[in-house]
Specification:
single chain; alpha/beta; Rossmann fold; 9 strands; about 35% helix; globular
Length: about 260
């Protein structure tokens, strides 16, 4: 089945992992720009046994490498809702890092618009509150050389080696450009805050997102809110994986 020229095969667009035994809660994850579902493959082993980790794979990467990537957020969210709705029958929490945080936020809003089940909580990482004006210099329209230089400067992208190979570079660049276009084309619209909890995470030395930027996520909820700042840069969650997953485990247990 197709949706706006993109796959609707949920076995290709979603990956889920769990420990042995029944699960009672889902952690639905959205990755950063250029990444796929594999970014979360190892998470279930570090989370409570009752939590199933599910990750959305966007078009243009991994099993969907032949699909055209989105460049606008609205059609991406429509597609994501169609893909993920079957997973919402079980209690769920949303997690997103960087671009994924913005996707998770607008996904939660679209669930509310459609009167679909609400998440138990929204966990956002590496992205300032969406109502803040964008301060970064646009990257999507830069030349390939300039674009790659700027992207490589983001600690943790680990793309330098891939960019050195023409075949890999030809696969990666269109996806990255499309993902950055989503961020750069985003226009925030004010709506009522959520009723469920929001947790904001980030790196203390993130050049893109300050602790104050994270703190302003409080405006997006009437429920409880907390901010957690870890050592590290924009991709702090690689070096701080164990600590972050311990925190997410605690949050999931409280929300179940």
């Amino acid at each position: 089945m197709r949706y706006a020229g993109r796959t609707m095969n949920r076995h290709q667009a979603v990956e889920c992992w769990s420990q042995s035994g029944p699960t009672a809660q889902r952690l639905i994850c959205f990755a950063h720009a250029g990444a796929g579902a594999a970014a979360f493959q190892s998470w279930s082993a570090a989370l409570p046994a009752q939590v199933e980790v599910c990750a959305l794979r966007l078009p243009g990467r991994e099993r969907l490498i032949g699909e055209t990537p989105f460049q606008q957020l609205a059609p991406l969210i429509d597609w994501a809702v169609e893909i993920l709705t079957p997973l919402l029958a079980r209690p769920f929490v949303l997690f997103g890092h960087s671009l994924g945080a913005l996707i998770a936020f607008e996904f939660a809003r679209e669930l509310r618009h459609r009167k679909l089940p609400a998440p138990q909580g929204l966990l956002v990482s590496g992205h300032g509150a969406p109502q803040l004006p964008r301060r970064e210099t646009p990257l999507a329209e830069l030349s390939d050389t300039e674009f790659m230089t700027r992207v490589e400067a983001l600690e943790g992208t680990r793309l330098t080696e891939a960019f050195a190979h023409p075949e890999l570079r030809a696969l990666i660049l269109p996806v990255l450009r499309a993902d950055f276009a989503i961020l750069e084309n985003y226009a925030y619209t004010a709506e009522a805050p959520f009723e469920f909890p929001v947790r904001a995470y980030g790196g203390a030395d993130d050049p893109l997102v300050s602790a104050e930027d994270l703190a302003l996520w409080v405006e997006q909820t009437r429920g409880s809110f907390s901010r957690h700042v870890f050592p590290g840069h924009h991709f702090y969650l690689q070096a701080q994986r164990e600590v972050l997953l311990h925190e997410i485990s605690h949050v999931c247990r409280r929300m179940l």
